[in-house]
């Protein structure tokens, strides 16, 4: 490793001036890292590179449209961006539009905070069938992400939907799919999705997990929101064979938050078992949803290339030497959403710079955010796609503190020109979006939303966003 880094680094023998830092990514990890660096030293210069024309990452394209309170962090990020020492450089795909090696030549330090732009796969037969989607695709569709506007999911032809995975994203998808259109219309939801929601024929939605009910990954707030929907009725598990409720003694081994969550799930299931709802009729279809536990997906089955059902094996039998037909269940589905987590991928050029990337875990190998001289990681690319915005904030602060501590200790950093964006500008050929440009895009989106009596209508293509800037 040292032989790779040596030509790229310098060590200060005197007290260094403030560093020039490049941050790759513009989501929460990137902005919180910038915030902490400015708190440590207001004279630091920061250039933030974003592959798309717009900032905020999953805050913009991942947070559900009916959760505007979560998006309030954008106001804090805007304060950071208005710092005179900060530059936002959107629509620059590092590794494609700009070689990573070139970027490293003009900064004292680079912070990789670009999140997890890929998805984990089930790796089972049938995953390629039409009607199988990643959570990112579906969430991106209803959040107007230009990368996911040709999903091909027709809600008017949908009766049964299976969501594989039991995290908050799964509950978000279920809640949006089961909500009344009029409840969502004032939000910044994609109006084209909303139109489809008005025509939806969805009747049953199953949220399926591999483990038991005590191991779900979602939180109680999101679950309560789903239970409170007036437009959908909760069903007791239909396909879970070994449903076991935890006793008070067993519950005492969990922390308070987990205990409350498990008790809520158990009480709702018991209520649904005692008062089963009437079956939906063809004439007056109703929305039903349920949680299924202890089922591992083994195959997605279809006909003529289109998904028809999902085959699950009871998780408790997966490691058995022999199995029988009773160990398997099949759940009907005209659409399947794979919601088992996001995954980071390396940026082209990392290997040449000696940046160690663990392809299995989907993270850059690091020590408390430190990768190598002048190289740092923050957020999901540092730890994997875990935690909420608050935990990402604390993690980003840790990386920023590590960087600044190393700087003050005169540890080796990149042998950069310290020119930052000014040294790179001449070689970038793509239209660059500044923070002022982003604000113009945002204002157009707000104006477009007013026409539909919504808070905003996002551009659904990058070309449309750039067109308002005449770029």
Automatic annotation (TrEMBL):
Report the GO molecular function annotations.
Answer: oxidoreductase activity
Reaction(s) catalysed (UniProt annotation): 2 reduced [adrenodoxin] + NADP(+) + H(+) = 2 oxidized [adrenodoxin] + NADPH
Q: Name one GO cellular component term.
A: mitochondrion
Q: Which sequence ranges are marked TM in the entry?
A: none
List localization entries. Answer: Mitochondrion
Domain called FAD/NAD(P)-binding: residue spans: 23-177
Swiss-Prot/TrEMBL cofactor(s): FAD
**Keywords linked to the UniProt accession:** FAD, Flavoprotein, Mitochondrion, NADP, Oxidoreductase
Its main localization is mitochondrion
Name of this protein:
NADPH:adrenodoxin oxidoreductase, mitochondrial
Q: Which organism is it from?
A: Schizosaccharomyces osmophilus
The protein's gene is named arh1
